[in-house]
Amino acid sequence: MRKLLFCLVLTTLLLGCATPPHDPDQEPAKPGGLDQLEKAEALYQAANWQEARNQFDALIRIYPRNAYLWYKLGNALSKLGQYNDSAIAYQNAIAIDPEFFRASYNLGLIRLLQSEEALSQAKEHAPAQDALIAQIDRIRILTKQLLQSISTPVEAQTTVETPRALAIREKSRAQPSR
To answer: So what's the pLDDT on residue 97?
Structure first.
């Protein structure tokens, strides 16, 4: 009897391990994805940064593992001057897709803008005769020159992914991290 019970349990466990993996191609797209993405893109193109941000936030709640959506949220946030939140959005995009070089590039630009803000604040609070003031001024001048020599954060291609593509990409990125 014990052998039979053992074989039954072992067979059940092995059958459970042998089930084929879930196929994201068979998964229906989440509702409203395409319409919402098109709306977010249109708001962004119309320079309606706050509303675009709200739409990208809403899409991220549906597709949290979509690097493109985090990237676009980062772009909208940078346009709003919200550099800390923008950096977080770019970092999320990079965490999902480490090869997303545009997100890495934009994160680098945001870090330069953040350094300008930090140096400005340091100068504002430094004692009048502090030796660091001259160094702060030099670094700020170089940072401003560098930022002026390059464009604002790079924009994504304006192609819109279908909800099915968004869902498939999200599912493919949803594998647990090691």
So the answer is: 97
At 105, list the tokens: 């590039």
The backbone torsions φ and ψ at residue 80, rounded to the nearest 5 degrees and listed phi first, read -85, -5
Residues in the chain: 178
Q: Which two tokens stand for residue 165?
A: 């593509």
Mapping DSSP to helix (H, G, I), strand (E, B) and coil, where does residue 178 land?
Answer: coil
Helical H segments across the chain, by residue range: 2-17, 33-45, 49-62, 67-79, 83-96, 101-125, 132-149, 163-173
Give how far Cα 108 sits from Cα of 21, 94, 101, Å: 38, 12, 10
On the question of pLDDT at 32 being above 80, the answer is no
Placement of tokens 């100068």 in the chain: 123
Task: Report d(CA 97, CA 65) in Å as an integer.
Answer: 9
Residue 62: strand, helix, or coil? helix
Q: What phi and psi, each to the nearest 5 degrees, are found at residue 47?
A: 65, 25
